[in-house]
Amino acid sequence: MHEFHLLTQVVKTVEDRLQGEPKAKPVLVRLKIQASSHLLAQDLSTLHAAFVLASQGTKAEGAKLEIIPVSGEAWCPHCTTGVTATDSDSLCAMCGGPVLAGQSESEVMVHELVVEE
Predict the structure, then answer these.
(1) Residue 98 pLDDT exceeds 90
(2) Among 3, 41, 85, 90, which is most buried by a count of CB atoms within 10 Å?
(3) Under CATH, to which class is 2-116 assigned?
(4) How far apart are CA 67 and CA 76, in angstroms?
């Protein structure tokens, strides 16, 4: 359910960006997702299915979703060390504990829209 809510927000962002361009039709939506995000720890087909459902009846309906994992800020709650997370299983270099995504960056960001007119 959380995934569906996030992808609904992505669709809203797509529609907001295309506001004022009535003939523009997105064919590709590229998302950047923080590598430490729990979203990347699951089968990506879940995110694709949530996008299909969330985009029904919108300008984004029929667009392809591309997911780009990106490294991002994270921190270790055990030793409070800041680290760079490169995947959802990143560990703290200092103590070996699991890290959490940093709060200063968005977990999911619309990186690029490819449209046809």
Answers:
(1) no
(2) 85
(3) alpha beta
(4) 26
